User: Which sequence fits this backbone?
């Protein structure tokens, strides 16, 4: 088993982008401004960032995909062209598209096209259709492993090739949030708040609690499972060997709205898992370790999605995250002394002591996770430092003034 | 610069616009989609710290109130002086 599997990471900002590169992603996907499925995210990149993204990634051999995958109206057509022209100029590897306007214009400009989950590819004839335009397609998240395998087998057997002349690469989601509806076909947010999920403005109605009211007598019934519409998050690391075996080429990690340390942890785990599957060292023991590491970052509880053929979704039983760890902001970076490998921070909140786990994130730094082994506060060696103090501590990687310092705290279940 | 009968103040936090077009549908005389960046422009407005503001007569109140209500990002605000 030595087929190259591409691990694709989400990047909502430069910090997550750097975390993806540093932790072994083969490619990253990201949005600019509003025409992408995370239009609400305040941290989206702008068109002016494309050169830096391409530069940072290409030097590390990481491919770059720009998401331009909302539904498109006439009034968007001009900005669509502008974005695609900029993709070409800046040397971004491909666009992820769903609207035919985007697919058509990108092809006319010889920009590589990948098919978005918004198009819900669920059968091989649809793959054949889009192969006229696209080299990579993500399959619908609602397929089973058997269905995925059958599509991959057909692509191979019938040699269905994309515009680049090579067999179409099949991509699947490996980890992250799932929709209650077939992905991209949900109108809840549009109906309640005019806020179209299909324009990237989903208000996540499904993640809330609801009651049923009997209109005849006004009785309110609380629904047994309180979050009846909120699925748990997809996690495939415990059957990644089977998922890879189905013949897919690309594993996509969901989460452009999530924090940089989420990207760092999830990408690192899946990188190790893919490599383990490849060299025959994928074991239950390793899976257990990866699972507990994945549980430390944002999650709504895990399940295997529809891949293993569950009849119905598994619903989360709480609002928000079930992560076993949370981060607490405690200060900002000030200076790095490269020779002794010492980082200097200003402690703006809470306290920090030897043995604490810390997290440093920043647009250039990406993500550093480490433990405090020794500590100085206001030039004196201490066991614990407090708000307002200037602290220094040993840290292997360079930190910067643009970095934020967090303490990682265990969350009691 | 505004006449006394322009008592309706409309403001728009343009940066957060996602270009959904609702405001243009409701008040096409006051909003236009920009071809440059795909966000909507509040016609006749002046910008201050990212917020675009203009004053209009009460005739325009209803349409723009609908636009403000429909805006999924809640970035259109309307008030009467």
Assistant:
């Amino acid at each position: 088993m030595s087929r190259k599997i591409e691990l694709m990471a989400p990047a909502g900002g430069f910090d997550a982008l750097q975390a993806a590169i540093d932790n072994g992603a083969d490619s990253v996907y990201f949005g600019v401004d509003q025409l992408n499925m995370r239009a609400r995210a305040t941290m989206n990149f702008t068109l002016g960032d494309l050169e830096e993204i391409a530069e940072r990634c290409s030097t590390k051999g990481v491919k770059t995909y720009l998401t331009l995958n909302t539904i498109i109206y006439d009034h968007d057509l001009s900005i669509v062209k502008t974005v695609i022209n900029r993709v070409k100029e800046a040397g971004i590897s491909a666009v992820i598209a769903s609207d035919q306007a985007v697919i058509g214009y990108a092809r006319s400009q010889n920009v590589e096209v990948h098919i978005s989950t918004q198009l819900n590819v669920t059968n091989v004839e649809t793959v054949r259709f889009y192969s006229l335009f696209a080299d990579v397609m993500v399959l619908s998240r609602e397929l089973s492993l058997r269905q995925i395998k059958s599509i991959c087998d057909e692509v191979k057997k019938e040699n269905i090739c994309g515009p680049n002349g090579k067999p179409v690469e099949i991509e699947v989601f490996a980890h992250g949030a799932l929709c209650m509806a077939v992905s991209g076909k949900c109108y809840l947010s549009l109906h309640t708040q005019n806020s179209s999920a299909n324009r990237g403005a989903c208000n996540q109605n499904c993640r809330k609690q609801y009651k049923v009211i009997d209109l005849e007598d006004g009785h309110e019934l609380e629904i047994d499972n309180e979050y009846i519409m909120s699925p748990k998050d997809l996690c495939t690391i415990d059957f990644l060997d089977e998922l890879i075996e189905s013949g897919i080429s690309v594993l996509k990690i969901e989460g452009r709205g999530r924090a940089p340390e989420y990207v760092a942890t999830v990408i690192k785990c899946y990188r190790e898992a893919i490599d383990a599957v490849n060299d025959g060292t994928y074991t239950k023991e390793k899976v257990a370790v990866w699972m507990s590491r994945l549980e430390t970052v944002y999650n709504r509880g895990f399940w295997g999605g529809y891949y293993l053929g569950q009849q119905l979704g598994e619903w989360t039983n709480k609002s928000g995250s079930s992560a076993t760890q949370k981060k607490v902001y405690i200060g900002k970076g000030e200076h790095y002394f490269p020779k002794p490998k010492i980082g200097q921070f200003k402690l703006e909140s809470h306290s920090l002591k030897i043995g604490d786990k810390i997290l440093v994130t920043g647009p250039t730094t990406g993500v550093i996770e480490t433990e405090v082994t020794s500590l100085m506060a206001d030039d004196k060696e201490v066991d614990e430092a407090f708000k307002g103090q200037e602290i220094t501590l040993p840290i292997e990687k360079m930190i910067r003034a643009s970095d934020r310092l967090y303490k990682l705290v265990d969350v009691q279940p | 610069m505004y006449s006394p009968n322009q008592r309706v103040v409309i403001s728009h936090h343009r940066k957060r616009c996602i270009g959904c077009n609702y405001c243009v549908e409701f008040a096409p005389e006051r909003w236009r989609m920009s071809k440059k960046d795909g966000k909507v422009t509040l016609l006749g407005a002046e910008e201050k710290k990212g917020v675009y503001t203009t004053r209009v007569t009460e005739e325009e109140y209803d349409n723009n109130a609908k636009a403000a209500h429909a805006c999924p990002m809640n970035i259109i605000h309307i008030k009467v002086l």
Summary: Chain A is about 25% helix and 25% strand. The radius of gyration of chain A is 23 Å.
